[in-house]
Amino acid sequence: MSSGSRPRINPGHSTLALLIAGACCFGSIAFGVSAPQPANRAATAAPSKDQLLFFEEKIRPIVANNCFKCHSSANGTPQAGLELDWKGGWEEGGLSGPVIVPGDPDKSLMIQAVRYTDRQLQMPPGGKLSNSQINDLVAWVRMGAPDPRTTRPASTVSYGGSGKNHWAFKPVSKPAPPAVKNQAWAANDIDRFVLARLEASGMSGGERADRRTLIRRAYFDVIGLPPTPEQVNAFLADTSTNAFERVVDGLLASPRYGERWGRHWLDIARYSDTKGQFNRRIGESPIYPYAWTYRDYVIKAFNDDLPYDQFIHEQLAADRLVDRKNPAPLAALGFLTLGDHFNGMAADVINDRIDVTSKAFLGLTVTCARCHNHKFDPIPQADYYSLYGIFSSSIEPADRPIIATPNAAHADYLVKRQEMDARISALREQNIKSLFGDYKRDGAAYLLATTLPERQRAAFLAKSGADPALLQNWTNITRGAFRPGVPVFGIWSALARIPPERFAQQAPRVLDALLDGRPGRGGRAGRGPAPAQAQEAFDVSPLVLKAFDGRTPRNHADAAAMYGKLFARADAEWEALMGQVLDRALLRFLPRPAENQLVNLHNQSELLELVDPGAPARAHVLVDKPKPANAPILIRGQIETPGEVVPRRFLEVLSGTKRPRFDDGSGRLELAKAIADKQNPLTARVMVNRVWQHHFGEGFVSTPDDLGNQSSPPTHPELLDWLAAELQEHKWSTKHLHRLIVNSNAYRTFHGRRLVSQEAPQADPDVGDMATKQPQQSGICREGSVQPPALAREHPAARV
Questions:
Q1: Residue 191 is inside which H or E element, if any?
Q2: Residue among 97, 77, 70, 74 nearest 149 (CA)
Q3: Can you give the pTM of this predicted structure?
């Protein structure tokens, strides 16, 4: 149904009293009989975090993109009186009441409408939602339609929680360790913070664990492996006062420490050896052949106690920092590059890089601001696209840099590499010839033939020495619908649409529009809107544009001849451009068996890089584009609706309204420095919270990837800040954090019995939780691998 048209009304539909016209979503549904009433609001349980996440990721984008135009007070009077931009709106409903019955999709008019099962009740009118969107809406209603939007949207930006006054956005301070009564129990300042809370609640510190339990606990926590019987016996026999400290130092010096704690970081970095949803349309291999170099970099970084701020710098911008004599840190960029490829959707890849960066280092869900201002944290949509501009100004080069000296097996590898390259090249040339013939010699003839009357084409090509059977492939590759071909064939596609008898008059105007529309030519200011062909100039290669600049063909034959000169070029720049177009064409137009053969050979090539012992170590890197650019805000996250262009810069909540723009290349290095700045209140807190989590089973904040307004307050904010300041003051040393934690009495306490009364935690849950939080327990499963503690989710005081 077109916008503004009236929905069809079936006179025989006895319950249908009124259907408001307009291109709207669900408020147009207004029935003469009352719709089923929603469940009692007061009885509705508060949404869980998983439900809120489902709403934010699935439901909010659907209604924002399909309903708000007509059913949001921000866009004028909501049609049919229905507001879908807040919970109270759909609970109150439109002219005839609610359109959602929480818990019952089948009785919800909204679900009936989106299913399109009733010809008279189909919304949105512009077209049916996708099956996945409908399924998400059904699942949302079935779970009770949890909706955090409890107040009508204001005209100004507002945020949930305490907004910018949230504790995590305030500067880190280093409080003085509190005085305690039982000085003998406190082994270090961590214990003073813990014991002060215990004593204030009428509790006391517990006894130390026995030495056998203690050494096993330390081994599992620090290196992830159990001690040998000999190591246990040696510790039991050592009666010196610093025996345990020496064990801890030895574990932190073990190579196994980097493997254990590097594994934790690789989980944060969503490390994978494969690309997830790889781009089959371009024959992309599903594997990352050099992912292991990032894994090894992370392990080495932890073993070397690389300062955490440098760890951040290298993972975001190693390409701007490394010395050519020591390229090894380039592997750190795997943090950004080893994510899902999302079927080649560049915007989703960039979103993933923003997500992993903001969660890993800042503990913020910045990507919730992709389609709208963040609903809980003070992160406007403009901030998201400031970061988007940084990552969209970075590219993965085709040639991955070598980061280590080749080994003795390298010579054998080179022989295999040359053989593989020869096989790929031969098969590629064979496939190109099977689809397009000798394009360097006959390309101009094929182009011209596409403009001739159909009955003349075969004879013309045969006379020219070309194969008429291949003409359809040339038609396919030169059409604008084959987007990968536009860089080369965009001009031909525009000229070929001109009737021959009008070519002399229209060709100059078409070329003028194309050349004036290209970047750097200033457009057609003062001369009216450019024709549609001008937009193609932004995709047409400068090499092709230059060939036609100042040269106007008289007819299609002249234009084809100009292309023939381009096809005959043998320089590297042209060969690379034409090669890209032909490679994409092979995967689009080859018969399936030939396509599979080519893809399989490319996969074998990547496997050679992965498994051959002589293959050089390379890094999956990013580099800055030659011309970095700021990004526009995409209204509702849609690429078709660009808005204001925003500068590349850091988040306002962490750097102020007068924060500097990032103009040094893409801005990744400036971003890394802003994240690792000691004035940034989040970075140190987030890392301390992660380390504490892996030692005690849960962090000060239970959501390590989100310290924003939706997170619970820290169980012990003073200790969290004290440790964050310690991390910064000790040159961002993570091993220093481990020593403090593992050598504390809080860590070494015996937990074979309950340490506090049943009543104390109930009186003050935070005190009880902090006081009884126990070090992570580990065991060995039958196969010998480390098994998480069975009691990890029980009350900490019950762990043994």
A1: helix 189-200
A2: 74
A3: 0.72
